[in-house]
What we know:
Layout: H1 13-27, H2 34-63, E1 69-70, E2 73-74, E3 99-101, E4 113-115, H3 144-148, H4 158-161
Antiparallel strand pairs: 1-2, 3-4
Amino acid sequence: GSSLLTGPEGLMAKERENLKRLKCLRRYRQRYGVEALLHRQLRERRMLATDGAAQQAHTTRSSQRCLAFVDDVRCSNPSLPMTRHCLTHICQDANQTLFKPCQGSEEVPCDKPVPVSLAEEPCCPLHLRLPPQLYVPEQGLPGPQELETAPAELYLSAAELQPSENLPLEFSD
């Protein structure tokens, strides 16, 4: 609005009225004097309070370690977000419902935590049971040695592969 001609020769009455409204709207919610000073101080205090709280939450969160003890020594791994245990010891938390220990097999027991999925018994990749094989190869197909011993009369000569009739070629313009 400051680049507009503001003299009486530059604007018509309607344009002057619009310019006056624009200037009023620009000043509508601005604070002046003591009110502006107090508002700026309040904003600075809020920024310091929220930045301090965010910084404190970040340092507290990143410094938390797993609460599990292995052979009377506390685990040094960082805990998972929103929990008190690391991924290795998450199954020790009785309140969590996202992980279950792998059932393993009879020969190789396993207690590795795995995420709960739609499967009834979630397993780690080592103990994952594959579905039954859908494709079963047929037993009646000949092997490579059987193809080599095929009789020679099954093969056609080069003369037999040539067409026996000459068909006229028709060109259409």
